[in-house]
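Researcher: Re-running this chain for the archive, since the previous output was lost when a drive failed. Same request as before.
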Amino acid sequence: MKKIVFLLALLPGLVLAGCGQEQIQNSSGVEENGRVQANDSTESHGENTMGNESEKMTSEETETVSAEVPENFVLIKGGTFQMGSPESEAWRSGDELQHSVTVSDFYMSRYELTQAEYEAVMGENPSSFSGGDLPVENVTWLEAVAYCNTRSEQEGLTPVYDMEGKSVSWNRSADGYRLPTEAEWEYACRAGTGTPFYMEDSPSAEEANYYGHYPYMIEENYFSQGNLAVQPGEYRQTTVPVGSFEANPFGLYDMHGNVGEWTWDIYGDYPADAQSDPTGAQSGTRRVYRGGGWNDFAKNMRCAYRATMDQDKGSFNVGIRLVRNAAAGNGNVEGAALESGADTGSAEGSSVLIAYFSWGGNTRGIAEEIADQTGADLFEITPVNPYSDDYNTVLDEAQRDQNEQARPELAAHVENMEDYDIIILGYPNWWASIPMPVASFLEEYDFTGKTILPFCSHGGGRFGQSLTAIAKLAPDADMGEALSVHYSGGSSLGDDVRAWLEENGITAN
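Model: Regenerated structure tokens:
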């Protein structure tokens, strides 16, 4: 199994990691409220105020169905809602096409799966943080579905998934544990609302565990924070015990933040027409996870935001929330071994290009260290119209380009891209994603059959959602292990780069 590696300690962060300045101080301490006590486990939810076509259950019907609700699960009453985001929603992505979706009743766990629960079933704990009541993370999608099957078997339920290597089929009639579909997850997160979050405004750092310095709309209001509905707050730099904050209107905890949550779906474009119990794209290269994690900006915790990653990779901010059928479904969702752009088993004999964008010099220094160790070719990604040299100005320019999804024209081009097998791609973490000149670079070439090895300089947010951005822009490339470097990397940079290259099968000089 491949897992995203991070090599440097968490430290207070900056929006533009390449500048080497601190603009916002972290608050100290980690909120440890403990697990909020669940309400009566027979409670059911799901009357949707956004055009729900289902009728509200009578009290007698509710009692009949909810008597079977598993412990610490909530009955989510199905209905019809608008999945995705309206074009007017700030910081929406192009893959959030709004469309009508109907979901059937289902049970969803009130809480993200804990490390204690995972270890009790699987006998191991892959998490980066340690604590029985913390959410399990650093678990791959394949490990998540294996957990579902193993726990189902232990509890005498019918396993949901048929696993043959990396190909997984879903028996929709089985009563065991499973992952939610994207549609089920978003329906449950919205809890009858049509706003970017299930609460009226962005969640504050007292309402969710995320990179609390950056509430929703901070990007446009960085220098005039009096205009914000929610002020910047604490960045805890770690997961917190599940259920540490108030539940959403459906009784579900941590739907925004703490850890992202794997869904069943293969990532792909939404259809424009109405859907009923959709199960995602028929083919693709990566799986979807939702909700955002402890190191995400609020914009990437929106109900509609879609993150994606290889099914055999895990991350320190992605975990599991379980679902079970409320009634037997119909048929199977046939499995498919997800397409892969390249084989990263060995890089021996491969031709390597180091392509990087750098503003303040930190990324350039890392790229040059990689070049020294590998002898690979260097290519600097430079826009025709460079960003300002002034830090405050470039903050504004960077968020403007990201919000508009601009594609700046590049001043130089790789004339022989077909000659390279591996692209080592470097950039500073800008506003929790890639700078838009990197997006221009990724859209300019065909990366089919190539491997991309990302590295980024950052000021505390590590990768942000930059890996998802790269995965969406280069879906036919294979993604190798990624490296995050705090600012310029310090005295350990050489050793960290060497270890990362070896992780990816590249032998240093």
